[in-house]
Structures are given as C-alpha cells and as structure tokens.
Amino acid sequence: MAEIKTFDRRAYPEELVIDRWQAPDGWDHRRWTWPAPAGADIKGSMIFQTGRGDIFEKYLETLHHWHEAGWHLSGFDWRGQSGSGRFLTDPTVGHIVSFEPWIEDLEVFLTEWRQRVPGPHVLASHSMGGHIAMRFLIDRKPDIAGALFSAPMLKMQSRPLPEKLAQLISRAYVRLGFAEQHAWQENERPSLPGSSRQKLLTHDWPRYSDEEYWYDTQPKLKIGPPSWSWLKAAYASSKAMFARGTFESVGIPVLIVAARQDKLVKASAIEEAARRLPDARLVMNDKSAHELLREIDEIRDPLIAEMDRFLNKIASSTK
C-alpha cells in the first residue's frame, strides 16, 4: 500500500521563498512566493491576500492545494501589520487612516507581478483582503482573468448596533482624540470577557491552533484589535464601495464563498455585491464560521471543490 503523505501546516515548504518588497514610497513589505512545482503543467498564477491582522502561514494548507494543482502563488503582508511593519509605536494596534494606501500597494504589486509570471492571472483574498481586492477591481480595473473571494469584509458586522450608529461612534471617537487607540481590547470584535474567538473563526480546533503556533514561534507577526481610525476608514471605504454603479463596472468573472451566519462580516452585503456584479457566482454556507478555508473538512472540502471548478474554468478558457 502506498504511503499517504500529509501536509505539515506548521512548517514552511522547501520551495516557498520569503523576502522583501518595497512600495514606490519606500514602505518595506514582507513578500512570499511559492512557484508551481517543477515540470508541472502550470495553470496560471495567483496572488493570495489575507485579512486584517492576518498571516499567510495560516493558509499554507490551502495554498499547498493550489500549488499542487499547478498554480504559481505569491502575496504580501499589508503595510502596518504582520511582517510589513507598523504605523504606530504600539505594535499591538491595527491602525490605518485610509484604505487607499492598501489599494495602491496592491495595484503596484500586481502590476509588477503580472510582468514576470505566467497567466492567466487570478487575485484571491480573504476577509479584509477581500475588501481591498474588491475596491481594487472597482477603482483600478486590473487586467486579470478572475477574482476569488473568501468571506470578504465588504461591510463589517455591527450588530447589535445599527450600521449608521456604529459609523457615527467611530467618527466621534476619532474626533475626541482616540484615533490611535484600540477600538476594543480583545477578540475579533467587541465581545464579553471569555467569549470564544475560535467560534467566530472556525469549528476546527487543530486548524485554529495553527495560528497560535505561528505566533508563538514568530511573535513579531502578531497584532491586536483595530484602532478607532481603522474603524472609521473601514466604514468610509464600504460606503464608497456600495455607491451606484461600482460593482456593475467589474468586468471579470468572480467567485465568492461566504458564511451565511458570519459574525464578523455582513452576509447581506456580500449577497448584494454578488447580485450587482455582472459575472459572479456566490456560494453561501449555512454552517461555516468566518474562516472558511480553515474549517472542518465537512465544510471546507466542498468549498475548495467550488474554487477548483472556478479556477479550472479560468485556466482552460485561456488556453
């Protein structure tokens, strides 16, 4: 009987390269590249961008799946988090004044990347990365073959507060001088002490605990809750995204996989975006938490299969 090889989610693959990339303004980013297997029938190239306070290491298992399928993979840490430095002297604050620098970074990175890697070119993203990627598609109209979104943070989940009230509160705290302070003290959103962060993210404890392994071994990658300024900027960016004619202008195929019961991002906003996008397929899962790519196999496997069908269609349509 042939030996069944399992992928080690807590180790860097031998072929994966981590180096640095500088934006035109000199900001130093952590970049990673995982070339397609030597001798493989290369399907194309994909950028994968993570969410707020996130690290790509958490997604090595999914990246390995795409790597084995013949995709050349790359990505970078957003400025101000993970391995791309911080905006404030307090490294635990997830801060930003505007989402525009992130959109600009993505455009510059992708434009350079397209010139040196084989097509078709695909942009994949998760959560806040999905917000930035969607703004990028709307505002910059990149020359790529398709875009894949996992639980995109098109709008934040503000419950129990109405969205407009939450937006007003964030603006007020910035005006009162709290712009650079944590908007809350722990977890992924305001919650009672002792609330389970895991339940917000995934039902799979081993996959959830991978994150702590990476932060234990590389503590400088970790960041805490967002600032009030980040909240204000996120609400402003969502408002711009949902203006008239925005989604309708996107001219490439899009696949969105999302969680109907997501407690971090607004599922109804994702559904509206999918309706307005000219060429979009939306797959909503009734059981998943926010991190669909790190869910239990019962949830994750069918979603990965949906992504594979989407990616294979893009790969075959360009040959």
Taking the sheet with the most strands, its summary is: 8 strands, mixed
Number of strands: 8
- Share of helix, binned: 25-40%
* End-to-end distance: 37 Å
Sheet with most strands: strand arrangement: 1-2-4-3-5-6-7-8
- The CATH homologous superfamily is termed Alpha/Beta hydrolase fold, catalytic domain
Q: Which residue ranges are poorly predicted, with pLDDT under 50 across at least 5 consecutive positions?
A: none
Summarize the structure in words.
The chain is an alpha/beta fold. The protein has one domain: Rossmann fold (3-Layer(aba) Sandwich), CATH 3.40.50. The chain is 36% helix and 15% strand. The protein is built from nine helices and eight strands. Helix 8 (267-276) links the parallel strand 7 (254-259) and strand 8 (280-285). It is globular, with a radius of gyration of 19 Å. The two termini are 37 Å apart. The model has no long low-confidence stretch (mean pLDDT 95).
Task: Describe this structure in a few short sentences.
By secondary structure, this protein is α/β, with parallel strands linked by helices.
Describe the SSE topology.
Elements lengths: L16 E6 L5 E7 L9 E6 L10 H9 L2 E6 L23 H15 L6 E6 L1 H13 L5 E5 L12 H16 L18 H5 L3 H13 L10 H14 L12 E6 L7 H10 L3 E6 L11 H21 L2
Parallel strand pairs: 3-4, 3-5, 5-6, 6-7, 7-8
Antiparallel strand pairs: 1-2, 2-4
Helix pairs in contact: 2-3, 4-7
Short key terms for the protein model shown above:
319 residues; alpha/beta; Rossmann fold; 9 helices
